[in-house]
Amino acid sequence: MALGTRPCSNAGLFLIFSLLVFITFSSVAEGYNRLHPRDCSPRCTYRCSGTSHKKPCMFFCLKCCATCLCVPPGTYGNKQACPCYNNWKTKEGGPKCP
């Protein structure tokens, strides 16, 4: 062993490995909600299944999905899962996406 060098300890290796795993899974989670446009229709059908106003819900959901490539899970709420979908507002300031 050369002077001034010392091998990595197990704790150092574990830290580096943990960091790599975290970076990998954070990028996977970031892309989790991104859809292809062809996936919008089934997601919006489920999203709008709980409302009595299916036509307008589907119209706006499909429009939002085509732009944001994301539909929140469930039939109501959970919009924080799709920031674009959540932040798109009407001219009056209300939510555009169902």
UniProtKB/TrEMBL annotation:
Q: Which UniProt keywords apply?
A: Signal
Say which domain of life the source belongs to. Eukaryota
Keyword presence, Signal: yes
One short Pfam family name for this protein? GASA
- Name of the protein this chain belongs to: Protein RSI-1
By sequence similarity, the record places it as follows: Belongs to the GASA family.
Span of the secretion signal?
Answer: 1-31
Report whether Signal shows up as a keyword of the record: yes
